[in-house]
Amino acid sequence: MASFLQIADDDEGHELDLFCVPRHYENDLERVIIPHGLIMDRTERLARDIIRDMGGHHIAALCVLKGGYTFFADLLDHIQVLNQNCDESLPLTVDFIRVKSYCNDRSTNSVKVIGGEELSKLSGKNVLIVEDVVETGRTMETLLSLLSECKPKMVKVVSLLVKRTPRSSGYRPDYIGFEVPDAFLVGYALDYNEHFRDLSHICILNDQAKEKYKV
Question: Which CATH number does the domain housing residue 207 bear?
């Protein structure tokens, strides 16, 4: 089973005024739940674990957009540094796919994959899927099902976050950064209707902001 850093349900997080938070978001957030520095440290360890398990293979890294792009870039930066300093290096190529399953703060239970026709190029390759958050697990299960039709050689999934939720299908990624409470989280490229991607820390969104930015 994948190891992870657990953020407890009763974790009070951190007051906003202890961190640099963009002024235009100060009234939209409850608290900082994962500071940026902790995200970076955990991402570095995930990179090391991935190289330990997959080093020596040529890997096609597949970024799930849009929320995964910052984690994807930072993870690959750490892998690049480790590649320069470790005996087990990891040759990488990159690709991108967009998956949409949310409307406001709710999962629609309908997974839309944009760019799925490009998955055929991953046939016979070792694939590392990089995701920002796994909640119900249905999105990733849908993507893995589509990918399996292309017959890749190996598939591993790394997700920065996994939510503890009764809506979960039971799916768990191969690599997990943090297990987090069932709250709506924004920042570090996680969005609410395209807002908050420019926030460095991962924060809990307050109810007023959900109404403010609702579409």
Answer: 3.40.50.2020
